[in-house]
Specification:
Elements (H helix, E strand, L loop, with lengths): L1 H22 L5 H25 L11 H18 L11 H14 L5 H8 L27 H4 L9 E6 L2 E6 L4 E6 L9
Antiparallel strand pairs: 1-2, 2-3
């Protein structure tokens, strides 16, 4: 059953990625190959998440915040145990990273990036020198907003995975486990680059 879900997720991500790639006719085949590899790795992670999550009792609506945080922590620990060597670039592998950076650059070509980031973090106090790490929790101080211009162009992710920005870095965030799955450093172009 999980193999079927994995194939469905890969097909969905590839279909949306193909639309993004098709819209940019003339782009090299490398972008498509990178997005295809990204889709496969995202699907593999989603399958791992489902397999690990199936061990726990199903989520239930509750007002007990402590039990929600406890379950999240257990899920995160179990996923980390399944990915003990997880590191930056596991999902954003070099060709995938290049493809995603290209999509981001195209989407933000007419956007004042620094102004956009200031708006996102206007009410957040980012610690100086903070760098997101794979297998760490998503910081409480960070924004949960994501610019629509990016959401509309980045490949669609399976339920439970979301994109987030911290400074110029693009993150893949497992919402249920509150786990940073991968980080694409400097995905957002800097002023003058």
């Amino acid at each position: 059953m999980t193999r079927v879900w994995s194939r469905v997720i890969v097909a969905a991500v590839l279909a949306t990625s193909a639309v993004s790639v098709g819209a940019a006719a003339g782009q090299d085949a490398g972008r498509f190959d990178g997005l295809q590899l990204f889709a496969q790795r995202v699907a593999a992670y989603a399958e791992l998440h489902q397999r690990v999550d199936a061990v726990f009792t199903p989520w239930k609506a509750t007002d007990d915040v402590a039990s929600i945080f406890r379950r999240r922590a257990y899920l995160a620990s179990a996923i980390k145990a399944e990915r003990p060597n997880a590191r930056q670039g596991d999902l954003f592998q070099a060709s995938a990273a290049s493809a995603v950076r290209g999509i981001v650059a195209d989407a933000l070509s007419n956007v004042d990036v620094e102004f956009m980031l200031e708006g996102l973090y206007e009410e957040c106090e980012m610690p100086a020198g903070y760098r997101p790490l794979v297998n760490a929790g998503y910081p409480q101080w960070a924004t949960h907003e994501m610019p629509f211009v990016l959401l509309a162009t980045l490949p669609v992710l399976p339920a439970g995975l979301q994109y987030r920005l911290i400074d110029h870095d693009l993150l893949l965030w497992d919402v249920d486990a509150n786990l940073i799955v991968d980080v694409l450093p400097d995905a957002i172009p800097r002023a003058g680059s």
